[in-house]
Amino acid sequence: NAGVTQTPKFQVLKTGQSMTLQCAQDMNHEYMSWYRQDPGMGLRLIHYSVGAGITDQGEVPNGYNVSRSTTEDFPLRLLSAAPSQTSVYFCASSYSGRSSGNTIYFGEGSWLTVV
Amino acid sequence: DQQVKQNSPSLSVQEGRISILNCDYTNSMFDYFLWYKKYPAEGPTFLISISSIKDKNEDGRFTVFLNKSAKHLSLHIVPSQPGDSAVYFCAASEANSKLTFGKGITLSVRP
Question: Is A85 part of the contact surface with chain B (CB cutoff 8 Å)?
Answer without folding.
Answer: no
